[in-house]
Design brief:
heterodimer, A: alpha/beta, Glutaredoxin, 7-stranded mixed β-sheet, 7 strands, about 20% strand, B: mainly beta, Immunoglobulin-like, 4-stranded antiparallel β-sheet, 4-stranded mixed β-sheet, about 10% helix
Chain lengths: ~200, ~180
Amino acid sequence: MRRNASAILILTLVVAVMIFAGVRSSRGPKVSPMLGSTKPLIYGEVKGKEAPDFVLHDLEGKQVKLSDFRGKAVLLNFWATWCGPCKVEMPWFVEMQKQYGPQGLQIIGVALDDSGKEAIQKFAKEMGVNYTILQGHDAVGDAYGAVGLPTTYFIDRGGKIIDSDSGLVSRSEIEENVKKALSDGKAEAETARSKTKIAS
Amino acid sequence: MKTTFAIVVIACLQLFAADEPKSSRAYVSFEGATPVTVSPGKPTPVALRFKVKQGFHINSNQPKSELLIPTTLKLDVPTDLAAGTISYPPGKDVSFPFDPSEKLNVYSDDFTVKAKMSVAKMASTGNFTVHGQLNYQACSDNACFPPKEIPIRFDVHVQNQPGRTHGRTPQSPHIK
């Protein structure tokens, strides 16, 4: 009797693990683009938090790491080709990249899209995008706590999130945060740079 | 032993819950289907009613751009039934504050999708359950949300020649 109960228990465990593994593997690639072990952020509680690092592919297939832009202010924008409000912001981002790029701004658009690289590429070309576009992964959106699109995070030169916007906001609000990101975190970025120099 | 079994079950449930996507918010609800009785040789439409949450809209089945994700219905019918043409209502042309210059073709509030159901000649009299899902992509006035699906389920009563009844109603598997 006791033997039967143990067998049932083991069988239940095995079945549960198999179902769990099946569910996980059916949800996209196993390799996470997230680097390090940061807890997922909760939207609305992101100010002052370290921007979770990730590695994604750009539209040329090159691997791009968020931390490669340390020392620059980053506007990280989650978008999709099927998102109307996202389309409104893109010409603003093009102009901001032109205007603030020389001061150290890097705009990164993460496309959370299932339509494939070619469709994203075509869309970005039509919109005249002059900033980095990455092929997204749900895990990155989840790590940042992004629910709707567009969602934008403003990251200072030291890698800290200084603010975020969920949904379409005015151009002036975005620009204000860009200026803040450019001026914040300079000291942290300098310290990090000198530490890297000493180490090398 | 029972306690150990209960702990294992609870742990498994928590494991699944933790792995669920955070955003399980639904923007469309299935409000039910009109009762339908189908006889062999007489395809009969069934009307499936849906409601879009206030403040949101979803693309119609014929959105104006190929980039937009259309609303589609998938039905998985039991062996003796067949689903014919699915008719979607025309959407409304609406422009939204995020781009007043562009009109999108959308569903908002209530909308009804019709599917023509037919039955095999040899089918037995009785109730058959049809499962399916509605796929949609919702937006509000200033944000859009990832594509979603909602499961639907409705009964079809099959009326065949008098005296023909069946003991077992074939059921459609639930689409995942």
